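lol ok so funny story. i was supposed to be doing the assay writeup but got distracted and ended up predicting the structure for this chain instead. priorities right. anyway since i did it might as well share w the group, maybe its usefull for someone
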Amino acid sequence: MPESYNVELAHDLAHHVGAHVRGRDAWLGMAEAIVLAIVAVATAWSGYQASRWEGISTKHYALYERYTVLSQEKSTLAGQDRLYDIVTFNGWIAAKIAGHGPLAEFYERRFRPEYEVAFRAWFHLDPLHNKNAPPGPIFMPQYKNANASASDRYESVASDYFKKGVETRETGDDYVRVTVFLATVLFLTALSQRFGYAGPRAVIVGIATLLLVISMFWIVTLPRT
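and the output, tada:
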């Protein structure tokens, strides 16, 4: 076989292999470009959502603190009301037992409107002679304290805002986790471009693509603001 024919055959084979390798490199380059484009958009969106949810969480925590303070204020006022009711009742009972009618009436006029309702219901049971009567008006079902009720309401609202703060913070953390995954995808894609061989490069791009798919699934399923 002529030597020139062998040289020509080798040249054709090398040209064919080179074209195949260049074609495969082109496809890998295109895949890397697509991955990088998606990562850029997804990272921006994930960062935006993480920032938004962090702001919402901060707002919820601020409202939690506000209503906690209001609940404590009302609870303090409720304690003062209860103390006032007990003091005036003790003065009334002392005057009543001692037979000082005018002084007892004086104390009755000083009862708080809420307490007076419970006092009238309690006094209707003839507690001075009825041993089965409750010890005092504060043990009657009619005894109400508006400040205590307001304290309970504010506490309930504060608890709700705290739960919302925890939930929104966790959502923000989820978006931060997605951002970390996307940063890993970006690193792997950049690393793949350092390899001159198509095999290792394709493996790294495949891993990066898998992580990108997982990240996109999280982005699609997570709550959005």
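Residues 1-21 have pLDDT under 50 and may be disordered. The chain has one domain: 23-221.
back to the writeup now i swear
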